[in-house]
Amino acid sequence: MLCWRETLAVSSFEKSQTTFSMSRVLNGIVAVCPNLGIGKDGNLPWHPIRLSNEFAHFRKMTATPSIAGRKNVVVMGRKTWFSIPEKNRPLKGRINIVLSREYKVPPAGAHYLASDFSSALTLVDTELAEQADQVWVIGGSSLYKELMESPGTRRLFVTQVLQQFDCDTFLPEIVPEKYQLLPEFPGVPKELQEENGIQYRFEVYENI
Ligand SMILES: NC(=O)c1ccc[n+]([C@@H]2O[C@H](COP(=O)([O-])OP(=O)(O)OC[C@H]3O[C@@H](n4cnc5c(N)ncnc54)[C@H](OP(=O)(O)O)[C@@H]3O)[C@@H](O)[C@H]2O)c1
């Protein structure tokens, strides 16, 4: 059992971790249909069509650290982890944190397990503080929601797919009162993209 002095130490430690997480820019990245659909049957809505250049954009954004010698962190829900083909797990060159309330150990191949979003951020700011650079939330629905509603600077890298597909998983609405579309962002092409007859556009939003 903790004595009051230890309790105090723990609570001020937790408070400082919350402050660190708030001061860190957190990024989300998602590809979305016009009706905000992001998934279908545990896969992407456009499966089996592949958007290879769109995937290359995801890889470039999430895997490129801004500080040499460090690695970016990808944070994802358990279903998103299993939606990644086994041969591509963990996402290479990145620290993979999987969230689950049920799992007691990370799923095979994942680097870390966290039982909630704030524990994942605390992990980044403590155990991973010396090696972690950018944090990227890569899905699914509830994690995007937590990211979008959390305090601090939040950026959303959104691929607007301009064609509708059947979806069963959705992105929460990007509320214009809270998020503004940036006119441009380094490394993000502005031109309309097209692959396999599907048009899409890269956008970056930041909270106001
Ligand atoms: N279009 C895109 O860019 C994109 C990106 C990502 C995913 N997707 C698609 O979206 C679908 C998967 O997303 P999803 O929303 O269904 O599921 P998900 O968020 O990836 O996974 C849900 C599970 O993650 C765990 N989890 C989520 N939030 C948590 C939290 N705050 N704390 C602790 N654990 C948490 C829980 O696992 P337990 O049940 O184990 O407790 C929960 O059941 C797939 O179809 C995938 O292809 C699309």
TrEMBL record:
What's its catalytic activity?
A: (6S)-5,6,7,8-tetrahydrofolate + NADP(+) = 7,8-dihydrofolate + NADPH + H(+)
Q: Which UniProt keywords apply?
A: NADP, One-carbon metabolism, Oxidoreductase
Gene Ontology MF terms: dihydrofolate reductase activity; NADP binding
Q: Where is the signal peptide?
A: none
Pathway this chain belongs to: Cofactor biosynthesis; tetrahydrofolate biosynthesis; 5,6,7,8-tetrahydrofolate from 7,8-dihydrofolate: step 1/1
Q: What class of enzyme is it?
A: oxidoreductase
- Which GO cellular component does the record give, naming just one? mitochondrion
Q: Which family does it belong to?
A: Belongs to the dihydrofolate reductase family.
Q: What is its EC number?
A: 1.5.1.3
Q: Which organism's genome codes for this protein?
A: Xiphophorus maculatus
List each copy of the DHFR domain by range.
Answer: 25-207
**Pfam families given in the database record:** DHFR_1
Q: Which GO terms describe its biological process?
A: dihydrofolate metabolic process; folic acid metabolic process; one-carbon metabolic process; tetrahydrofolate biosynthetic process
Q: What is this protein called?
A: dihydrofolate reductase
